[in-house]
Amino acid sequence: MIPAPLEYPPYTAQRLCPGLWHIQDATADHPPGTQPDGSFHSPSSVYVVETPSQVLVVDLGPPYPGQALRALVDRIAGGRAIQVAITHNHFDHIGALRQFEDCLHHLPQRDPIQTAAPSRLLTGGESIALPPYHFQVLAVPGHTRGSLAFYEPEQGWLFTGDAFGSSYVWLLFLPDAVEVYRDTLRRTLALLGEREDLLLLPGHRYQQQILPVPGIDPRSPRNPRLGLPYLRDMLTLSEQILAGTAASRPFQACGREDLAAYTYGRAEIDALLPGRPPVEL
């Protein structure tokens, strides 16, 4: 049984299983989705992996004033050393970077990030050793050029940031994003093999709609568990988009209307219409 969440405003932390915590910038008073004033709250996911001697924090959420995230992670760490791994350089995943500048940072080399912390730049193919866990670093471009994922094969954990989406993926920031993403999916699925117990731990877990989220388009898929079937549907959908056969509807984001939401099975890809310039974030 998953224990009750721990609120530490603006965050909520919950232990998903032994050794693994999920943190998001949402609380009972400020939940994900449409708010009473009509605004939409889109929290980001932070993960904390515990070992006997240290913890690994995967992504650091959006920027907030103060030191609340560090205080919450310190509470979980209980004096153990802290390392940080970043999946990509978007603001809603590196917002608390300065709170952790005394910790070793594992960073994507192809998504430049400015930090004063001791850093290790990664391109994929490396590993992060936190015994008893050993994370394989995967290059997973598409959402961004330098996106990384962190795979723990013994546990079947795959920390993905926004690389594979959190029920749907934005492929808006590269001119050739869908083609790059298709190739990423092919490589990743070949690496994972038949790992049916795979668990994707994405960058915006609320989008899975483990509990219904008001304001998410009802046509978007609901995926309480993300695993191999989801990735397989994403590959099929990316191939359909490139072939011009994918089902779609109009989509708006980042002030742009020249976008489309494509769907197949468990998968949704929100992408540029053909020939349109990428979104600048």
TrEMBL record:
Gene3D superfamilies recorded: Ribonuclease Z/Hydroxyacylglutathione hydrolase-like
Domain (Metallo-beta-lactamase) ranges: 43-204
A Pfam family that the UniProt record links to this protein: Lactamase_B
Lineage: superkingdom: Bacteria
SMART domains: Lactamase_B
PANTHER family: METALLO-BETA-LACTAMASE DOMAIN-CONTAINING, METALLO-BETA-LACTAMASE DOMAIN-CONTAINING PROTEIN
Protein name according to UniProt: MBL fold metallo-hydrolase
Organism of origin: Pseudoflavonifractor gallinarum
